[in-house]
Design brief:
6 strands, 39% strand, flat
Length: 102
Amino acid sequence: MKTFKKLTNYVSYPVTGLELTKYITMSQTRHPIVYDLFGVIGHRGDLFSGHYYAVTKNNLDQCWYLFDDDAVQKVTVEDCLTPDAFILFYQKRFAAFYKQPL
């Protein structure tokens, strides 16, 4: 009989500066293709039960917020960097941001 277990290994992922230019085969862009993290879906619990939550960055105030059922609270970016991360959401940088150092 097979047994199933939720993997809880921490996988390192960047908050800013996910550089993907070298993976684009037909890239004819003058700018690098760079993405920044803006959201994480996390899951606490085991494979068969648990709880989902979201941590997202607000573009207006540049702060991170934890959405957990009906509770919302301001958190730090470190709260995104967890082995509970299940789905990561990245946003492509606009050309205006390329002048800033990566």
